[in-house]
Amino acid sequence: MPPADVKSSLSFLARAGATVAVVLLAGCSRGEEPAPPQKTAAAPPEKPPVLAPPPALGRAELLDAMDDAASAYAAGVVPQGVDPLVGRTFVVRTPFGCMGPRSEKEARPGLARWNTASQGRTIELGLAPADWTKTPLMASAVTDKVWETVEGYWIDRPWLKTETCPATPQAGAGFTALPSPQTMGLAAVFAPEDSRLSRRKGRPYSFTVRGSGDVLPLPPPQGYRLVLEGRITAFPDGRAVNCRSEGPDQRPVCILAVQLDRVAFEDGGTGAQISEWR
User: Fold this and answer.
1) Where does residue 100 fall: left (phi above 0), alpha (psi -120 to 50 degrees), or beta otherwise?
2) Mind listing the pLDDT tens digit for each residue in 107-164?
3) What pTM value is reported for the model?
4) Is the distance from CB of 171 to CB of 101 less than 8 angstroms?
5) What is the C-alpha to C-alpha distance for residues 189 and 181, in angstroms, rounded to an integer?
6) Contact, 129 vs 153, CB < 8 A?
7) Which pLDDT tens digit goes with each residue over 26-64?
8) Closest C-alpha among 187, 178, 153, 181 to residue 245
9) 231 or 3: whose pLDDT is higher?
């Protein structure tokens, strides 16, 4: 091979070797690059805990609170701070008709009762709210036009914290059958701007229980129950319960201010609903 051709071949081989080296170095260089970091999904923000509303207060809890208010009133203690009762919901059940029927003439405002009618073919259940608008406990709120109307409902037998009829033991010597005066009740209050549709205006809650065919209706063995359900509100002084008595030897009469949402009659034994008003 001529010398010129040898030089040309060597030059070509040199250039080819350099190219291969560059390619190999580039490959090595790319292999040494670190892998790009993997993207991780951001953790979702924590949801604030959902706080369940406190359970509705029942008969026993309301009577305990009203007992405390009566004791504070008799001791001359003025409660301080925010009243924890205000804003709470409640469901209070009061047994009635435990000792038998009471005619419409014997009905007392604020207390439920039942009687037979149509020669025993029907049973009439009734409840007439009491008008407490002009009573001393409500006078300041009505005068200041905080409330326009106040309808009252007594919690019968407030010493009984169960929702069933009392036992009927034989009365001993020296005992009388006269009922105790009412001392605890719920005042359904209505401000001037409140709707007038829910105000009873003297109209009683009433329901007629009828028999089936020739079978006459019978009252439940454990009587009936009145159900009052709603939300506790406050008197102008910010307290849920206000009390008053004629003197230190008289048990205070204590009234709880409420916004009434539901009234119902139930079977006192099974709890089955008979009728309701919302």
Assistant:
1) left
2) 899 999 999 999 899 999 999 999 999 999 898 899 889 999 999 999 999 999 999 9
3) 0.79
4) no
5) 23
6) yes
7) 444 454 566 666 666 677 778 777 778 899 999 999 999
8) 181
9) 231
What string of H, E and C letters represents the secondary structure of the chain?
A: CCHHHHHHHHHHHHHHHHHHHHHHHHHHHHHCCCCCCCCCCCCCCCCCCCCCCCCCECHHHHHHHHHHHHHHHHHCCCCCCCCCCCCCEEEEEEEECCCCCCCHHHCCCCCEEEEEECCCCEEEEEECCEECCCCHHHHHHHHCCCCCEEEEEECCCCCCCCCCCCCCCCCCCCCCCCCCCCCEEEEEEECCCCCCCCCCCCCCEEEEEECECCECCCCCCCCEEEEEEEEECCCCCCCCEEEECCCCCCCCEEEEEEEEEEEEEEECCCCCEEEEEC
pLDDT of residue 29: 47
Nearest to 234 by CA among 130, 91, 82: 82
Apex 115 CA angle, 113 and 117, nearest 5: 150
Task: Determine what percent of the chain is predicted with pLDDT higher than 90.
Answer: 63
The partner residues of 205 in beta bridges, in order of sequence, read 127
